[in-house]
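Dear Dr. H.,

I hope your travels went smoothly. While you were away I took the liberty of generating a structure for the chain from your last submission, since the lab meeting agenda had it listed for discussion. I wanted you to have the full record in hand beforehand rather than looking at slides cold. The sequence, exactly as received, is reproduced here:
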Amino acid sequence: MPLVLPALLLAQAAVQLPETVVVETRQPAPASAASPSVTKLDVAQADEAGYRSLTSLLGTAPGVFATEQSGQGSQSSLFIRGTNSAHTAVLLDGRRLPAGFSGTYELGRYRLFGLSSVEVLRGASSSLYGANSLGGVVDLRLQDPLTAKAGSTLDVEGGSYGRASLGYAWATNNARAGQPATQGTALSVTRAHDDGWRANSDRDASTALVKSAWRLSPQLTADLIGSADLGRGGLPGSETAPSSVDWQKDHGWLLSPGLRYVDSITTATAFWSHGGTHVRSFTGGDLQDYRLATDELTAFADWKARSDLSFGLGATYERNAFNQVAYATPWANTIESFGLWTHLDWKPTSADRLKAGLRRDDFSDFAGKTTGELTWAHAFDAQLASHLKAATAYRAPSANDLAYGTSQNLVLRPEANRAFEAGLRFASATPQGPTWTLVAFENHLTDLIDYDPNDNYKTFNIAKARTRGLELGVEAHPAKGVRVFGAATSLQTKALTDYLGVVAAGQSLLRRPTFTLSAGAEITPNERWTCGLGVTLLHGRVDFDWDSYQRVTLPNSLVWRGWARYAWDDTTDLSLRVENLGGETAPPAALGYGAQPRSVYVGLTKKF
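The corresponding predicted structure, in token form, is as follows:
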């Protein structure tokens, strides 16, 4: 079974490992058959451990470095296995969320409240997900309203630096005693405010998530998924170049109806998604406006040819309309794409499994891409399994790559990855025993998009890089009421050509730690109290100093956090969390963006 994120801690019960994961195959599949590169994070458990933002949660997963520049809701960076922030696709229940003009996702816009789980697939994944899954996929999963317990939850938190948040979640369905639900709805809304610990770093944010489902027949289910977010915040700039006037307003939305059909032979899914983003900012004296409207139509199905053999087909059409209004550089364009994929899943023996996939994507404005993967898994026994995978993946050129023209008017090619990984997954036969995963990986990145100084810094494909490393996750229950956990990543990155004018061939890529550690312990002394202590270490990072125009070594970062939770009664919990217990000042994200000072937060959760 995939490692449940080591930093997610339990409140008062034994570990409840997920029965299925979706992100690896796009269909619900047994967790016991998932690769060690898949992690499913339970949001309820994360909330009990004091996690509030998606970035903070992802930042504790093996192989993932995710961090905010200046606190919750601020600009975030996400590096999976050393790849860039724009190399990861972010989904909501399998539907692709709209990315920004640079092809990245502003993770600070997404809250954990209202989600059921977060599934992370590390490694090249384009054979199923197409563009922007060069480094991996993050799928934000909503709870199923047909199986959710009816009721509502109120969540309130406040604390340091003007932090105040309010969340309300409500679920209902028509289930009756002995009769499963045929209709249900789950809704959540949040509102948050932060003053920030630096001048001009305040932020207000609101979010809403909804999922309704209707069982039309024993085989056919319809659903409707919706999301909306609205934010406004100051942009403080770096510590060496602060700003007191810059600001940004952003909002995004997604509306997606879908159908799902399941019988003994066929599993099929189809959906249409319409969404977009709008970012308006004032930076450096310039008012800028970026708008994106996107449509996606996707259908895929899997068939069981026999008990040991299945195959699948899928197709997707996407349309992205960009409109940029910026200082002296307005630009608008519509990019269309069509993808077609197939995959095979064969179990030649009870202990072996072979998977193969092939996909072709074509685009209206740049060259297409063919990707594929080949995976072999072997179960040594009921506890230990191995996993080998070779795959190719890509990242499509972003609007920013196209808006100012390409060097010599050459057609851009998608950035590409040729990836390899080998891993082990171990799950103890006893609840007290350890669960661990160990994966070795290597990515060969080619056709990276750079800016040509000899042609007015227009874009072209030239750069190459390599990332490789080891990722380990482990958890165990050595005694009753005690849980220990850890996740570690050793990473080596190397530019194989000069890149972006700040990295020379042979040098490491910027900002990625060579070693990341997340570890801690939680104690549940009785049925009412839970408390825990965790630590995160970042080691071996370099950045680029634009004042001295040279690379600099960032200091190592060691951040402690603690939390406690008290069950007042069966429906009411009180919580306390303290971030940065030791007062660490080393920048967690980048040069000039220091760590949030020691902060204290108290919360109340009430279920109705």
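Two observations you may find useful: DSSP finds four helices and 33 strands in the chain. The CA atoms of residues 158 and 406 lie 48 Å apart.

With kind regards,
E. W.
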